[in-house]
């Protein structure tokens, strides 16, 4: 097989996978509105994905605020614009940096975990056993996980943004002797609804993408135990790329509707 045939086959397989994932998403929307709903499993998944990610997201957000402020402060000092630091940091973190970085962190933790968990259930035929016993595995395993990631990721991003701003405030207090009250007054003066609302809306799509890709890769896992690792790795890679695509579309639409 020459290089042209290889590229053609890979391109064909890529579009076939996009079609399969689209059908997987359509099936999710069809199943989510049909009874019964697995409330207990949904709450358990929210705890697994939300509560157990608090520490990771909090540490990431705190370091993000520290590093971003430490790196930006010398440049602003050259232009005598230290007073702009709270405004610049808050808008940058809330609008773009916070949601994207935290979504990527969650894609690594949550997306890979979903892919590995469902992949293990697939290769050990637990999903087939659920179908034989009369349980709907798609509703129990997939619907609950996608809804949990869609709901919990915006909350994690809000918490991460708050911790990042706290880290930035600590640097400003130590380096520039800016009080916390003055810092956060400037932060809230700088932020507008056109900054917060688009960032919050796209965070729901980030969460949906993480859950969808992780569930798809795990649910269609093959090749035995080797496939579990491949499903986990592919879930992270595909989700990361999809997050950047969603972010580009969100920024483009925000620029149109909010005229930033």
Q: Can you walk through the features of this model?
A:
This protein has 260 residues and is mostly helical. It has one domain. Helix content is 86%, strand content 0%. It has 9 helices and no strands. Helix 2 packs parallel to helix 6, helix 4 runs parallel beside helix 8 and helix 6 crosses helix 8. The longest helix is centred in the middle third of the chain and has 39 residues.
Please summarize what this structure is.
This protein has 260 residues and is an all-alpha fold.
Show the helix and strand layout.
Layout: H1 3-32, H2 39-49, H3 54-78, H4 85-123, H5 126-132, H6 137-175, H7 180-190, H8 193-219, H9 224-257
Helix pairs in contact: 2-6, 3-4, 3-6, 4-6, 4-7, 4-8, 4-9, 6-8, 8-9
Shape: elongated
What is the helix fraction of residues, given as a range? over 70%
| Main sheet overview | none
The strand count comes to: 0
Strand content: under 5%
What is the overall pLDDT average? 87
Give the topology string: H per helix, E per strand: HHHHHHHHH
Q: Work out the helix count.
A: 9
* Distance between the amino and carboxyl termini: 50 Å
- What count of structural domains? 1
Coarse structural class: mainly alpha
Radius of gyration over all CA atoms, rounded: 21 Å
- List unreliable stretches of 5+ residues: none
Keywords summarizing the entry:
single chain, 260 residues, mainly alpha, 0% strand
């Amino acid at each position: 097989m020459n290089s042209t045939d290889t590229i053609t086959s890979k391109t064909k397989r890529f579009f076939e996978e996009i079609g399969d994932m689209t059908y997987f998403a359509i099936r999710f929307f069809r199943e989510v509105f049909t009874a019964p709903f697995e409330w207990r499993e949904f709450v358990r998944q929210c705890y697994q994905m939300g509560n157990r990610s608090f520490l990771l997201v909090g540490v990431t957000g705190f370091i993000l605020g520290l590093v971003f402020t430490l790196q930006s402060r010398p440049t602003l000092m050259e232009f005598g614009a230290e007073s702009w630091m709270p405004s610049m940091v808050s808008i940058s973190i809330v609008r773009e940096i916070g949601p994207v970085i935290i979504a990527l962190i969650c894609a690594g933790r949550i997306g890979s975990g979903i892919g590995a968990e469902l992949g293990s259930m697939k290769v050990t035929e637990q999903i087939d056993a659920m179908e034989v016993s009369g349980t709907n595995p798609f509703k129990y395993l997939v619907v609950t996980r996608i809804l949990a990631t869609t709901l919990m990721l915006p909350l994690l991003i809000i918490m991460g943004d708050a911790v990042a701003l706290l880290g930035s405030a600590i640097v400003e207090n130590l380096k520039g002797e800016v009080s916390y009250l003055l810092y956060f007054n400037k932060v809230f003066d700088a932020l507008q609804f056109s900054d917060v609302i688009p960032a919050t809306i796209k965070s729901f799509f980030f969460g949906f993408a993480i859950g969808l890709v992780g569930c798809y890769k795990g649910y269609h896992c093959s090749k035995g135990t080797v496939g579990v690792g491949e499903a986990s790795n592919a879930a992270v890679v595909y989700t990361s790329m999809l997050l950047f695509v969603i972010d580009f579309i969100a920024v483009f639409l925000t620029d149109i509707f909010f005229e930033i």
